[in-house]
Design goal:
Blueprint (H helix, E strand, L loop, with lengths): L17 H22 L1 H32 L9 H12 L2 H4 L3 E12 L3 E12 L14 H9 L6 E6 L2 E2 L4 H8 L15 H11 L7 H11 L18
Antiparallel strand pairs: 1-2, 1-3, 3-4
Length: 242
């Protein structure tokens, strides 16, 4: 059965698709708006303000538990080393402006609470001087990955703040993580089906390399990293090669 050529296909009524087109366009705008809210710092600040009273209560309850344990003589956590206590005192009692003259990274009472009751990072305070190579050591679950995730903006900060080259992660997360942080994840962040060359092309486009320069930049990186033999192999499998 053939349809008449005079049918108004963009029309609102069937067999027109105007209704579907309108709703599809509206759905796109709504989804983009929701994504913007979820990614914006204003939304995260509003959520922290809404949840602040509940978190404050949780911290107060925890503090009361600590005080009761101390009174009863039951230790709830290892005693801080003298150097850890001294570093905490330095970070907390020194202005950020003064700390920024010596430290490139400042973590000030950095705290992360999951689901309002699981304390993953407890008021971490440390400064990393400019030019220093610094590492976090600890058992699984100590909060290392959570700390780095807060610095890169992958996780929101429950309380406290961090400063990267003078930029606040809490108040300027997009700028701080966009211009100051390079992050190598714990597990592969590579697409299994893409070769080394294809992966470098993709990241060159994502980083804004001019289209005419991508080929030259990619080949230069391949040569500098001595990856000529592996340029057309799947990037995610290179670590297993001998």
């Amino acid at each position: 059965m053939c349809q008449s050529l005079e049918v108004d296909y963009p029309g609102w009524e069937s067999p027109g698709i105007g209704r579907s087109l309108i709703f599809m366009a509206l759905q796109g705008f709504v989804c983009l708006f929701i994504l913007f809210l979820l990614e914006s710092d204003s939304f995260h600040r509003a959520m922290r303000a809404l949840c602040g009273s509940h978190q404050d209560g949780s911290f107060q309850d925890r503090q009361r538990d600590v005080e009761m344990a101390v009174v009863s003589g039951v230790p709830v956590a290892p005693v801080e080393d003298n150097d850890v206590a001294a570093e905490r005192e330095r970070i907390v009692n020194t202005s950020v402006e003064r700390l920024q003259t010596t430290d490139a990274v400042i973590l000030r009472q950095l705290t992360k609470v999951f689901n309002m009751n699981f304390l993953a990072v407890d008021r971490l305070s440390v400064g990393i001087p400019k030019g220093e190579c610094f590492g976090l050591l600890g058992v699984n679950g100590a909060g290392k990955t959570t700390t780095f995730s807060m610095l890169t903006g992958d996780l929101t900060i429950s309380s406290g703040d961090a400063f990267l080259a003078g930029m606040s992660v809490m108040r300027g997360a997009a700028g701080a993580r966009g211009r100051q942080v390079g992050f190598c994840p714990q597990f592969d962040a590579l697409i299994d089906q893409m070769t080394v060359r294809e992966t470098l092309w993709m990241y060159a486009r994502l980083r804004g390399v001019h289209a005419g320069d991508i080929g030259r930049v990619v080949e230069k990186l391949i040569n500098q990293l001595t990856l000529e033999k592996y340029a057309n192999r799947e990037a995610s499998k290179l670590r297993y090669k001998r």
